[in-house]
Amino acid sequence: MAKILKINNDADYYYERGITKSDSSEFIDAIDSFYQALEREGENIWIYSEIAGNFLELDLVEPALKIYYRIIALDKKADIGYLGVMQCLVKQNLLPQAFFYLNMGVQNGALSSEFELDDEFFEEEEPRLKLSGKNDGSDMVAFARKLMVSGDVKYARQMLESVPKEARQYTDARNYLALIALGENETGRALAITDEILLQDDTDIPALTTRIVAYDIEGNDEKKREALRFLDSLRLTSKSDINKAAVCMQQIQNSELAVKFLRQALAFQPYDRNILLLLSIAENNCKNHRRARGIMLTLRKLYRDDMVVRYYARLFNKAYNKILEMTTELPEKIKNFRISYIKSRITALKTADAVARDLAENERFYEAVMWLFQSNELGLMGQTGALLAEHPDWRPFIRELLIDPDIHYRVKKECLLAYLRRARDKKFFLLVGDVMQHFKPRLPAHTGDPRLIDAYWQLYTTLAFIDSDFDKRLAAAYRELSKTVKLRDFGRFDLRPATLAAVMANCAGIHKIFDSPTDCCEIFDCDETEMRTYMDVLKLTPREKTTDRNGRN
After folding, report:
1. CA nearest 92: which of 61, 70, 67?
2. Phi, psi for 195 (deg, rounded to 5)
3. Rounded distance between C-alpha atoms, residue 316 and residue 293, angstroms
4. 474 Cβ contact partners less than 8 Å away, ≥ 6 residues apart
5. How far apart are the C-alpha atoms of 509 and 544, rounded to whole Å?
6. Angle in degrees, 0-180, between the axes of helices 170-183 and 153-161, rounded to the nearest 10
7. What is the pLDDT of residues 122-149, one digit of tens each?
8. Using CA atoms, how far apart are residues 482 and 448, in angstroms rounded to an integer?
9. pTM for this model (two decimals)
């Protein structure tokens, strides 16, 4: 196992205890010990490496991957970071991204140029590629499912309805159509589709679970009980069917059957955060308080920074006799209260200095803000992140957000813009898709006009999410616009940075997404008439999209 490091304080004790636990295959306790060492030695990449390695022993690839990203962000010459990221990506069948990190590691001198992704690196098996045959329909179904997740239900429905009856994926397509109908509260249509499916196979679990939820929405308790009895009588063996049954029990808030199916799901995913959290809540609802606390103890060791887990762990510290909603998030009432509380505190505190001071002194405010960055409240997240980026003590936290794959890009963009405006050292790391980019931006010689500088950073922030080699082109565009602005008299116009960013992006032709003033104005949320007025004053010619003879771009 790993060599024991001397870390100069009591972090050494927890590190050694973690090594001992890991050597004894007590991986959960090992992770807990390593995290305690990390609290005392916050940027030690070897402690991070041990945490990630133990997550992988539990087959928790996502948490391990996050840790390896963090190692690279701390030290871009750390070979353990690149090797760990590559190992996780190969396990997820993401070979192009794995090769990207191989090349990045070689370029940064962390890996030898002779390093190869050989058979040993692939460990259990090589990634499998799937080819779709004619009339298979799997490509359409898979793409339609992605559209459903993104909220584009209209086109998803069109694609699913086009899958022919002879296609192998026809039943899957019909089941997804039933889910769409259910989401639009068309329970009659959902039931009609499931009738059609169950007529062919009365044990089709996706159709059966959709049916149960539809009966629950309609308030048809008799038919729901009948369907539940039938589902309970089936001997489910596949991971997919068991998960669907567990999700169905969560949707209809049936704690007793949820316990049954969630326990079965643990056989396939023994340390999955959502399964463990739902099971703990379901066990508590069934008055199995000791089991609920035991599961929550495991969750607290594995997911220490998870504020939802922390909330329920505190709640279950003693027997909790109220029935709770089975959810993987905070209860709606608590969530709304925290959002209102954060808004009121920020409004009252006003400045970044005051917010930072209150976060250091007010545990309740700190916990609410930490929860916020794990929530789906994108607008408030972006606003709060931008405020925190103005304070030097919180910039390390903002850099952590930039490399977190779970943080929405809209939030990252707000945080990144504030970081670039305020930080003296503008070096940062950004995770775009599955690829981490390193940036060290420098502002070229400029006019000194703060509005032009702000426009530069707005454009830089946008480009960071769509390109990786734009610095020289952007610098040239900025210098050119600076000269032009100096030569012109804007008179009564109050120059707006967002509009200047749109002008700079369009005229320089830095990227195809800026090929028309209309597109630029949508991206930077500015007025197109104002943009064209700026261009008239500056004597610049707008770049318009070109079309072929058939009117296509």
Report:
1. 61
2. -55, -50
3. 6
4. 456, 459, 460, 463, 508, 510
5. 10
6. 150
7. 444 433 333 334 445 567 787 788 777 7
8. 9
9. 0.82
